[in-house]
Design a protein that fits this description.
124 residues, mainly beta, seven-stranded mixed sheet, 0% helix
């Protein structure tokens, strides 16, 4: 089975940076997509960024130019977060699914079946 474990969250001052990691175990096949989501207090979970097995990426407008999604050859997913703002405070989750979906849906949480437990990011 596919399992995901996030790490790298913490507390940081506004303008700071954090690098979130997501270790993925299990077999996804040669075609898959991986995403980062977040849930702020009192808000619904929202898609932040996605990368697929071809290396194609997309970002939510709120993080464009500040966050970068990437993955390495060992299937670890990363989210480099720069110029953090208090409104970025949330629990961040990584998610993945084998196969493909229409690209316009990749920031919707209902197209992902595998989720990590989340890591807290607090920006003050």
């Amino acid at each position: 089975d596919v399992q995901l474990v996030e790490s790298g969250g913490g507390s940081v001052q506004a303008g700071g940076s954090l690098r979130l990691s997501c270790a993925v175990t299990g077999y996804l096949g040669s075609s898959y997509y991986m995403g980062w989501f977040r849930r702020a207090p009192g808000k619904e979970r929202e898609g932040v960024a996605c990368i697929n097995s071809d290396g194609r990426t997309t970002y939510a407008d709120s993080v464009k130019g500040r966050f970068t999604i990437s993955q390495d050859a060992k299937s670890t997913l990363y989210l480099q977060t720069n110029s953090l703002k208090p409104e970025d405070t949330a629990v961040y989750y990584c998610a993945t699914n084998p196969g493909r979906v229409p690209w316009q849906y990749v920031l919707l949480d209902n197209v992902y079946n595998y989720w990590g437990q989340g890591t807290q990011v607090t920006v003050s």
